[in-house]
């Protein structure tokens, strides 16, 4: 089974956070990178930290 590295742009907004959760649950994704150009209430590093507690193979990285 092949795995994918996925970059999610706009990951810290109201649409991006639930989408990041759904991507984290996808078994075909091995690495998930979260980015956002706007200063959000929750920074991408915080979203990545929250998602990292979910027990799936995907490794999550968020920009500060």
TrEMBL record:
Source species, domain of life: Eukaryota
Record EC number: 1.1.1.37
SUPFAM superfamilies assigned: NAD(P)-binding Rossmann-fold domains
Residues annotated as domain Lactate/malate dehydrogenase N-terminal: 5-61
Any one Gene Ontology molecular-function term assigned to this protein's record: L-malate dehydrogenase (NAD+) activity
Gene Ontology annotations of biological process type: tricarboxylic acid cycle
Cellular component terms per the entry's GO annotation: cytoplasm
Pfam families, A to Z: Ldh_1_N
InterPro entries, alphabetized: Lactate/malate_DH_N (IPR001236), NAD(P)-bd_dom_sf (IPR036291)
Enzyme type, top EC level: oxidoreductase
Keywords: NAD, Oxidoreductase, Tricarboxylic acid cycle
The name this protein goes by in its record: malate dehydrogenase
Organism: Perkinsus marinus (strain ATCC 50983 / TXsc)
